[in-house]
Amino acid sequence: MKRAARATLALLALVSSPMLLAQDRAPARGERVALALATAQNAQGKKDRRELASALAVIDRSGAHPLAEWNGTDPVPQWRALVPDTAPPMRGSPLGPGYRSGQIMGGRSESFEQVFLSGQKASIALSTPGNAPISLHVLDPERKPVCVIRNTKRTCHWVPIFTQRYTIEVHNSGDGVADYFLVID
Asked: Collapsing DSSP states into helix, strand and coil, what is residue 121?
């Protein structure tokens, strides 16, 4: 009897494992937006209107918008002007993901602060059009690391205990200039 129960449990674990792994591999909304932003920039460079329109559709469906405190140039309106025959953007959630883009010289870092709310899942996704060697560090107010993203892992998730400002640092460990897109969801 015990042997049959163990065999059944082992079989259930085996059958359900691929489903759990598949769910873990599905990119989160912020990661999809970060990848779409990088894809759009690559498509613009290649003059690939179809790929650009597809990337813009992902951005539009997500409700993504520039981060409120970011003063950089938003590339999305320029990309939309390159594919004017596409459908107008649908209005997404006002709390949809926020994004910013930037360029960092080789060996340099850029940082900014962002408030995250207590008890609400925080998500940051990072992408680079050219797969530059960039990393991201999220630090709490005491400068303790909350999350570190390196070249292979480009998404960070956590649930803040307190509503507070976190420092987000993006570092380029390469020699050349690195373009990047960062999405906060």
From this structure: coil
